[in-house]
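fyi for ur records
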Amino acid sequence: MHSDPTAPQALAGIRIVDASRLLPGALCTQMLADLGADVIKVEAPGRGDYQRDFAPINRQDSGTFLLCNRNKRSLTLNLKSQAGKQVFMAMADRADVVLEGFRPGVMQRLGLDYEALSARNPRLIYCAISGFGQDGPYKHLPGHDLNYMGLQGALQMFGRGGRPAVPGTLVADIGGGSLMGVFGILAAIVARQTTGRGQMVDVSMFDGAQSFLAYHAAEPLFAGREPHGGEYLNLGGAPCYNVYRCQDGNYLALAAFEEHFWMRFCEVTGLVQWKDQQWPEGQARDAQQQSLAALFTSRTRDEWCRFLAGHDLPVTPVNTMGEALADPHVTARGLIQHMDHPVEGTIPQLGFPVKFSDTPGQLRRPPPTLGEHSNEILAELGYDAAAIDHMRASGVV
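which gave:
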């Protein structure tokens, strides 16, 4: 992450109107804002983004909100009012991108859908992030990360003994929604350079997460087998690719997936009897698993990690999240940053995940307070002070 405000940015000059309400859209536009886009976050008057209320609360806003909304400006706007719709359309007329996160049909009922806005601004890129996409039999269903992954057959890969498990990270929300949204918007910006036109970008969290099955879906598609957690080779079913408890009660992750790593591991640990059995099955697998489990209880986690890392083996500690966030590699890569906020004080931030040599991501603005930039944005659209005061009095902003 770069903090030089004079450094060039890849998306400088790109204007984005963000009408999403939850994490997938918020993280998507934060990444675009980190690259220089001017993102206007449209929030409902009064409550604002739902994320502002999620625990834990820092001082006024939630930690979740503060981690996903830097580099943006906040405008409160009642999209159900005629005046609010007019303001939104005025912003869309000047925007490169509009992003929304409602269920299909909501923006159409408001008269703010792609067809209506692109008729006024043909260069507009309109990205809709939804659970199941803009068509298909599930398009109107409510859903969250757990629902999308359950439908995909993915939850069985996180469980053990045939019981599905709740994943520890938001795979569909962030991977299928936020990251696919960034990808779709950037691809549409590139396409517009050739066509001169914007387009509709339909991002489904379900579809996006489906693409993460590229490795495991080979089993049912090509072999007619179901991959289950604790059984499939890289889902806990192989001793060489597994997690082990150490003497001090902490865990380490052994990922000796390649044959040369496995051979070296067996040599340096004295388990030479297993060198030619990297992928045992049945009773042999159970015996090997017990052998490795007993081995790792002989030293602490950190002792094992130092010893095995010295032999260039893929073994790492299973950190707590607190340990992970304080890891020296995380610090060296700039993955934890800090910035000053006028209400929240000095707040931590997760760094930008991609490093650019010439146009780096930057921390320019702290996450906005609710409606902090309403007057500023409305003035840019041509509204005078009297008109802005009238909109405030009538609940438009």
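The radius of gyration is 25 Å. thats all i got for now
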